[in-house]
Amino acid sequence: MVYQFYKDNKIAEYAPNLIIFVRMTTGTRIIQTLVRPLQKLPLGFHYAAVRPLVWIMKSVMKYRRDVVMVNLSRSFPDRKWKEIRNISNGFYSHFGDIFAEAMWFGGCRGDHGRLHRSGLCTTTDPQVLLEAYAKSPSVLLLTSHMGNWELLGGLLEYLPEGHGIDTNDLVVTYKRLSSGFWDEFIGSNRGSVLPGWTGYQESGNIMRYALANRNSKKIYIFIGDQFPYKGSARHEVPDFMHQPTLSMNGGAMLASKLHMPAIYFGMQRAGRGKYEIKFTKICDDASTMAPDDIMAEYYKLLQRDIEKDPANYLWSHNRWKQ
What we know:
Elements: H1 2-8, H2 16-23, H3 26-39, H4 43-60, H5 65-75, H6 81-106, H7 114-118, E1 121-123, H8 126-135, E2 139-143, H9 155-158, E3 170-174, H10 180-190, E4 200-202, H11 206-212, E5 219-223, E6 235-240, E7 243-247, H12 250-257, E8 262-271, E9 274-283, H13 291-308
Helix pairs in contact: 3-10, 4-6, 5-6, 12-13
């Protein structure tokens, strides 16, 4: 009722972040209030703050060390042990940067342009996306666990000014966490850049959401390299990083059903605190390709990016489990 009161009085037009705050549970509001001053600190502070955490994860807790080393050894069978170890060390450092950047990212709420001014993410070829968006009913962006996936909700801030895409035309799919508290807190942090944005949609509901909004032009972002969720359709990739790989193809199926162009969304590091986003078109109309063929092309492009910068990928995820 509180939300409806604010909505009816159109306060959402002027104070959308207040609406989001009101809708949070008490626990999430308390944590948001406590961490907000820290989130406003410069990115360099957050990088320095996570250094002890990286050391603890890598050397004390040995966080998923076995998974990381097995994944790397199988993915790079021709690399020497020293090279594998160096990639592993680079991965843990990058993993810490992901935490730092995600915390800083949450502090962009209420400061329009902070993320854009920072240059944390830039797009090298935005016209690939903008032209597809202008010509098509909606657009599918297939991304991965390269770079920092916690920053996906800020995509519109990475595009040139005057791009013409409405805030709520951006939709990012996610898998709900088992903890309701952390699911709400992380979700609010991921979407904090765009005031009033409601574009995070749970993967189990995305098909219903897309069909209900099929007459509205949207940009759908799917992370395509996760191990299939229980009960989801499975696609087998014969050879991704030298291993047979099971993957979900829900994004490709959605794009095929709604005649969307499919575009690969790559995120490479240009240096610490600098990501370059590159869009590579897979097809103009996904209905002209089989979903499995779309995913095969996606994995080929992803492998190309991983081989350029192996430490930029999430190796702690057990995506090759049986």
